[in-house]
Amino acid sequence: MATVRVCVCGDEGTGKSSLIASLVKDVFVSNKIQPVLPQITIPPSIGTPENVTTTIIDTSARPQDRTTLRKEIRKSNVILLVYSDHYSYERVALFWMPYFRSLGVNVPVVLCANKSDLTDNTTPQVIEDEMLPVMNEFREIDSCIRASAREHQNVNETFFLCQKAVTHPIAPLFDYKEGNLKPACVSALKRIFYLCDKDQDGYLNDDEIQDFQAKCFDKPLSSEDLDNIKLSIAKSVPESDTTKGVDMRGFLQLNKIYAEKGRHETIWIILRKYHYTDSLSLEDNFIHPRLDVPEYASAELSPAGYRFFMDLFLLFDKDNDGGLNDQELDALFAPTPGLPLSWVESSFPSTTVRNEAGHITLQGWLAQWSMTTFLEPKTTLEYLAYLGFEPPNARESLTSALKVTKPRKRRRRPGRVERNVVLCYIIGAAGAGKSSLLDAFLNRPFDGLYHPTIKPRRAVNSVELQGGKQCYLILEELGELEPAILENQVRLDSCDLICYAYDSSDPDSFSHIVDLRKRYPQLDELPSIYTALKADKDKTTQRSELQPDQYTSSLMMSTPVHVSVTWNSIGELFVSLAEAATNPSTAFPKSEEPPPDRTSLYLALGATTCAAVAAFMIWRRSTNSI
Questions:
Q1: What b/e sequence results for 237-260 when a residue is b if at least 16 CB atoms lie within 10 Å of its CB, and e otherwise?
Q2: Half-sphere exposure of 301 (CA within 13 A, CB side)
Q3: CA–CA distance, 56 with 186 (Å, rounded to integer)
Q4: Model confidence over 543-592: pLDDT tens digits?
Q5: Fewer Cβ within 10 Å of end Cβ, the chain: N or C?
Q6: Would strands 470-477 and 457-464 be described as parallel, antiparallel, or unpaired?
Q7: How many Å apart are CA 408 and CA 410, to the nearest integer?
Q8: Tell me: the pLDDT tens digits for 13-53?
Q9: Which of 167-181, 240-254, 310-324, 463-477 shows the lowest per-residue confidence on average (mean pLDDT)?
């Protein structure tokens, strides 16, 4: 917020203008001043919260000035309501607060008892009896203060409270009626505690507290201050074991003490360092940083991104069994809104590698995030923010956890594409064995019972290519959405390979592929591989104009690969798919003979030319010598 606009209201004669003049002149103005002072703008100073510019508007309570009063109240960020005697005090509850509510404004109100030099009743008990009933009745009153323009007492503090009511509002943090931090504040502070608890032992040890102090307040905490903090927590939460450090309850209690003592700006400093807005939501530009992925390019995790997710897995695998069980996953995703929506919709963790107990392994965890980054990089960036990713370089943003691949528009050009994550659509007739292929890809046992696929299903795993390089292969079965997806050019552009799969024991299976290619000629623009599944069964003649081997030969492509998910060699198919996806020129249907190899002709011509030049040079040298 660049400007705090303070509207000074109150009955006539309460000293509103004198308060403003005393602030500006830094001394009481004894001469008669005009009834309503002009607008005053105070530039930012070192003591100003958040270094904001403050605009102070004086107002009149006369009925004839009510239109101007209404306009100024609606334009303000905070209202300073001034009273000075019993009559004007009674008018606070009887007229002014109901009037503000009638205007529909939702701004904090600072209540100021001016002319405190005229009364001796300034004991804490009197102040409490006078001000607390009004604060309890009207929750919009942010704070109260007694001041004297004549004695220049608490004048600066009064306007500082107005600034602070806007820059560091108490309302979103603390419920005075309940005497507790509000749920949204508790949720934000719990997430901050989680991010600071680097070893996830449930306590902030001294080193973690010092790191937190340095991040939020840019200065170290003395050992004496640290001991005082632990002592305060021990008194407030007797069951808290501060010898181990500060636990979650102690951390929340400490911030509650700050709120109760009016030090809520401390809480706001913490919240804003962790990118929270005034509404206690994370800043949109923090969780959704700009990431441009050009057409025909894709997003992948960078080495820093893979390292972050790997460290996260190892940190939360408390039982060291190589998998994250439900409790460990819940703990890991505690500072987030929960599992990403796309994970829930795809029945995570069934999309990736699990151990025998059904828990996601490190290999499956990295594969799942690789697929998420490929399909929806904004989701990955959002969860990197929730989970506390910190770029290696302080000047970098969350996007350093991702990298954008080189666009691969010209797929027919020989050579490998610069991608470590590739997507392959498995297309074929119902019952061809596509689902079993995906299960085999994830090392799941074969299930002979047929389960038709209704909605698209994905599986992701790592594949080791020739030469030892690893890539992540995403296999997607399209289900009943197959026609819609094949008509969607954007979806086809994101696909790296088509795997045409048919049941070699079903005579009607291959014709589905032939019909698809006729219906969607755009599939010719994608690299593809033909696969004959269920090769462990008796091979049958396909009811098609051309048999599969003849059909692929007519396209000048490799004949179908015959595999069975019950064979141990099924892994070779996945390597072949990954190789074709990363080297797409090898998997295109060719409609004409390849151009003849003229390399030997070019070599012969080159040799003849060199010989002729050499002969000419010899002849010329011999004629010159004559």
A1: beebebeebbbbebbbbbbbbbbe
A2: 24
A3: 34
A4: 998 999 999 998 888 899 999 999 988 999 999 999 999 998 888 866 54
A5: C
A6: antiparallel
A7: 6
A8: 898 999 999 888 877 777 777 888 999 998 887 556 667 88
A9: 167-181
Q: DSSP letters of 511-576?
A: HHHHHHHHH-GGGGGS-EEEEEE-TTSPP---SSSS-HHHHHHHTT-PPPEE--TTSTTHHHHHHH
Query: What pTM, to 2 d.p., does this model score?
Result: 0.82
Of the pLDDT bands very low, low, confident and very high (cuts 50, 70, 90), residue 593 is: very low
Cα–Cα distance between 579 and 422 in angstroms, integer?
A: 10
Cα separation, 524 vs 145, whole angstroms: 78
| CA-to-CA dists, residue 145 to 14, 200, 208, 217, angstroms | 14, 43, 38, 28
Cis-peptide, bond into residue 303, ω within 30° of zero: no
* 419 CB-side CA count, 13 A: 33
* 499, 577 Cβ separation under 8 angstroms: yes
- From the number of C-beta atoms within 10 Å of its C-beta (0-12, 13-18, 19+), residue 478 rates as buried
Asked if 301 and 472 touch (Cβ cutoff 8 Å), the reply is no
- Lowest average pLDDT, out of 252-261, 307-316, 472-481, goes to 252-261
d(CA 270, CA 276): 9
pLDDT of residue 126: 59
Q: Alpha-carbon distance 373 to 397, whole Å? A: 16
pLDDT score for 534: 92
Find where tokens 């990089």 sit.
377
Question: Which residues, 6+ apart, have CB-to-CB distance to 212 below 8 Å?
Answer: 196, 204
